[in-house]
Design brief:
heterodimer; A: Cytochrome Bc1 Complex, Chain A, domain 1; globular; B: 439 residues; Cytochrome Bc1 Complex, Chain A, domain 1; five-stranded mixed sheet; 18% strand
């Protein structure tokens, strides 16, 4: 009762009453197809600029998995105008922070700088969009760097490694079965020609979105974008093969044995996403369902499994409604001492069964809605995060306008709809399960001589 | 010539904007003696609140992990409420609550909307957590078991194991020498009463600091601070931590671990918050290995040789001398080569200091990006917290650029020479054997 009142109060806050107006994204498409999105945020004299390319690991055919990520690294290795490393030096001298990231559905590059220096960022990004140098010597070194990155992120991390095996089992032919960083033997065998072809195919203004959030005026940003990007030639983009996942027709299970200290469980159900679902309310209902299970410390999993039954030391559920292709609704957990992954599996399935039988409580729904509303405010504290949201939505083929609709759409989700998606999608035949079975870790400490000086 | 011109322009630019305040930090004390630091920000109906105590892992005594577990138990029961009720109270109003510790500090923090009914409910919950945590036996056993599981899991992470060995090598028995999450043997021996007495000793008004950054008026901020800490006993500030005893000679330790990479950590106790050398060391380190994708270490280790994904150096200033750390991770069989490059780069920098061009580039990066240091409520709150906790001058941010500009190539070289001594450097390597080339 109390909760409902507070939530009603939330909805009446001026910030929500004008939430659509508050977003205020300006959009402009250049003649060559580059889409430019600008969102003003004048709280600080700073602007973030991000270039998003519609390419990522889910675009990659077998044999060159991870090449989008490799190319991301090579994008810092020089152009006709700038030698290798100069890009970063120029950004640094302008007080900028920069980096790049690759995901399944995107590759993105960003600089954050004082807003008056936006032109520095545009000039450099426009240059490397079309004029990258891909040199064999640089590739040879950077390939080693990426291999080290893979060792650090995946090979020496049992849970990450298990996740990799899990994805390869859960997806039959969807490209989501491949790791973003690529399989080791693919990484080892990239050739300059592979990267050249990948660059030529995807790096073009008509396959990119430029997002700027910060202390800027949209008109000025559009003019600046015209100045630096309009001269770039568009490409003829060949359509991407759909690689639609075949239907899963029964539960899949695997054991992964690795040197580790704790067992670990991952479960995933095949689910649709906003982009592919027939009725979008289903995607929002799955989003709310994830919140029922794992939307905070009061949510069912932590309350019921970590504190109540005490069979897990950690547990989580996640769903990404903004993926480009159908994805997995995942549950993961580490058993408490004396409990097993099988205890956990059955407890998690009990939670799913409850969702299929009973309607979620009203105060659970109200709690999730309150959190979503509050988060919409907190997110606006970070220009970078706001730019991320816009860029990602646009790049996966949804519209940035989804940001504006999100709170409203989550609000419309009913308890019946949550039960309906639990019944429809969280079923045994669509499930994949992986168990991490720890192998002993052997090692010892050897104190080598205490030397005088390290030279 | 060009160099001189550039540096002149920078100075001129700086003095054209002398009055531009970075953030107006207001400071006062509550009647019980808690220090309050408040910055009013506008534009979003939200506020970040933190209450911090000198009660980090450095206060563990021999009970390594006591500070962490005490902090972790605060929201598992307080006043009349159990963990579920506490979580529901925050989450039903969209508030985000957390408790955490570092080596020096223990803190509870709240991010909430400022609309009155929502704010009041979140604040009341935080106040009860701060002033009447229950430390119930059942909750204690469960949280202790979770900590023990976490400690066990640590043993599968080469990065964490290497870091633990590194701190031990630098600090030995000093309160900075052990891992904040403790050890299996120490945590196993805890009783709920240990946590209760740690809480009673350190979570007191005289040892508390309140940070408020967001859209609250000064009057609301005063009431908020008062609400939060007035229920705490006054108590007293703990004795200052002992000075760090510097290592007397260099040391080298290898730990065998079945990983594909070897984690390399090289360093020694470095700088502290009120160190007069701080800015020279900070700017110098920015050039050596702190500047993200542009630094000498990054250039030598990664860009020129492809030996590692990350290669960096850092100073972590604390109440006492926090670690100076140079680190990289590399394929087991090239550890020797990578370590050699690391040591040569470091020794070269200590011997020669930065070039004038490197210094100018670093200053341009630091001052040019100054506004980005506090361009969100969250980042600003963390600066204000640092300033308040270590009792730095309130104009720390306003004078930051000036202090960076004052640094010269000579002062960097001098500071590094005095403070970063290859003869005292501790080296940890953790990973697979050198000989076994993988693939």
């Amino acid at each position: 009762m109390n909760n409902r009142l507070l939530c009603a109060a939330l909805l009446w806050l001026p910030v929500f009453a004008s939430s659509a107006a508050a977003t205020k994204v300006s959009e402009h498409v250049l003649g060559n197809g580059l889409k430019v999105l600008v969102k003003e945020d004048h709280r600080s004299p700073v602007a973030v600029s991000q270039v998003w390319y519609k390419v990522g690991s889910s675009y990659e055919p077998g044999g060159i998995t991870g090449i989008s990520h490799m190319l991301e690294h090579m994008m810092f290795k020089g152009t006709d105008k700038h030698a290798a490393g100069e890009f970063s030096r120029i950004v640094a001298e302008n007080g900028g922070e920069e980096n790049a990231f690759t995901g399944e559905d995107y590759t993105a590059y960003f600089q954050t700088m004082e807003a008056s220096r936006l032109a520095v960022s545009f000039e450099l990004e426009a240059d490397r969009m079309r004029n990258l140098h891909l040199l064999a010597d640089e590739l040879k070194k950077e390939l080693q760097v990426v291999t080290e990155e893979r060792r650090m992120r995946t090979d020496d991390n049992p849970q990450a490694k298990m996740q990799e095996h899990f994805n390869a089992m859960a997806y039959t032919n969807s490209p989501y079965r491949n790791p973003v960083i690529g399989w080791p033997s693919d990484i080892e065998n990239y050739k300059v020609e592979d990267l050249q072809a990948w660059y030529q195919r995807w790096y073009a203004p008509n396959n990119a979105t430029l997002v700027v959030v910060g202390d800027v005026q949209p008109k000025a940003v559009f003019a600046l974008a015209e100045k630096y990007f309009a001269g770039l030639k568009p490409s003829e983009l060949k359509p991407l093969k759909p690689q639609a996942e075949v239907e899963q027709v029964g539960v899949r299970k695997m054991t992964v044995k690795l040197p580790a200290k704790l067992p670990y469980l991952v479960m995933g159900y095949k689910v649709p996403v906003l982009k592919t679902v027939q009725h979008e309310s289903e995607a929002y209902a799955l989003e709310v369902l994830a919140g029922v299970l794992d939307g905070g410390s009061s949510a069912r999993l932590e309350s019921g499994l970590v504190r109540g039954k005490q069979i897990a030391v950690s547990v989580g559920a996640s769903y990404s409604l903004t993926s480009r292709l159908p994805t997995l609704f995942t549950l993961e957990a580490t058993p408490a001492e004396g409990k097993t992954v099988w205890n956990l599996e059955s407890a998690l399935k009990d939670e799913i069964t409850k969702l299929q039988i009973n309607l979620v409580e009203d105060d659970e729904l109200q709690r999730i809605k309150a959190q979503v509303l509050a988060k919409a405010v907190y997110e606006r504290d970070s220009g970078f995060y706001q730019a991320m949201q816009l860029g990602m939505l646009e790049t996966v083929g949804l519209s940035w306008k989804v940001v504006d609709e999100y709170v409203e759409k989550v609000n419309q989700v009913t308890a019946e709809q949550v039960r309906e998606v639990a019944r429809k999608y969280l079923i045994e035949d669509k499930l994949s399960v992986a168990y991490l079975e720890p192998l002993p870790i052997t090692g010892n400490i050897t104190e080598t001589k205490t030397t005088k000086g390290v030279r | 010539m060009r160099i001189h011109l550039l540096s002149f322009m920078l100075v001129a630019w700086f003095f054209c904007n002398p009055a531009q305040a970075a953030a107006k930090i207001e400071h006062w004390q509550t009647p019980q003696g808690s220090r309050v630091y408040y910055v009013h920000t506008e534009g979003l109906p939200m506020v970040d609140i933190q209450v911090a105590f000198d009660a980090g892992s450095a206060r563990d005594g021999y009970q390594f992990g006591l500070s962490a577990l005490t902090s972790g138990m605060l929201d598992t029961g307080a006043g009349q409420w159990n963990a579920d009720q506490i979580a529901q109270r925050f989450e039903s109003v969209g508030a985000q609550f957390g408790s955490s510790i570092s080596i020096d500090m223990a803190s509870v923090s709240l991010r909430t909307l400022t609309d009155k009914p929502l704010f009041d409910k979140a604040l009341e919950t935080m106040q009860v957590i701060l002033t009447s945590p229950s430390f119930n036996e059942a909750d204690f056993q469960r949280e202790k078991n979770r900590t023990l599981a976490g400690l066990k899991q640590q043993e599968e992470s080469p990065a964490e194991l290497a870091s633990i060995a590194f701190y031990k090598a630098l600090y030995g028995d000093h309160p900075y020498g052990h891992s904040a999450s403790g050890e299996i043997v120490t945590v196993s021996g805890f009783e709920a009463a240990d946590l209760r007495s740690f809480y009673q000793k350190y979570y007191v008004a005289a040892n508390a600091m309140v940070v408020i950054v967001g859209d609250l008026s000064r009057q609301q901020a005063e009431q908020t601070a008062e609400t939060l800490v007035s229920g705490l006993p006054v108590g007293q500030k703990p004795e200052p931590l002992p000075e760090v005893v510097m290592p007397v000679k260099s040391g080298k330790q290898h730990i065998d671990f079945p990983s594909t990479q070897t984690h390399v950590l090289v360093g020694m106790p470095g700088t502290y918050r009120k160190d007069p050398d701080y800015f020279a060391l900070y700017v110098g380190n920015h050039i050596l290995g702190g500047g993200g994708l542009v630094s000498k270490l990054f250039e030598e280790v990664r860009e020129k040789r492809g030996l590692a994904y990350s290669a960096s150096s850092s100073f972590a200033p604390m109440f006492r001398k926090g670690p100076f750390t140079v680190s990289l991770q590399t394929r087991n069989d090239q550890t020797g080569q990578a370590l050699d490059v690391l040591n040569k780069t470091l020794a070269g920098f200590i011997a020669q200091g930065p070039t004038e061009a490197e210094l100018i580039a670093a200053k341009k990066n630091i001052t040019g990006g100054f506004a980005m240091r506090f361009d969100t409520n969250k980042k600003l709150a963390s600066y204000v917290s640092m300033i308040g906790f270590y009792q730095m001058p309130l104009d720390y941010l306003d004078t930051f650029q000036q202090n960076v500009e004052k640094v010269t190539a000579a002062s960097v070289k001098d500071a590094f020479k005095r403070r970063v001594d290859p003869q005292l450097m501790q080296t940890i390597t953790l990973g697979g054997s050198d000989k076994k080339s993988e693939k």
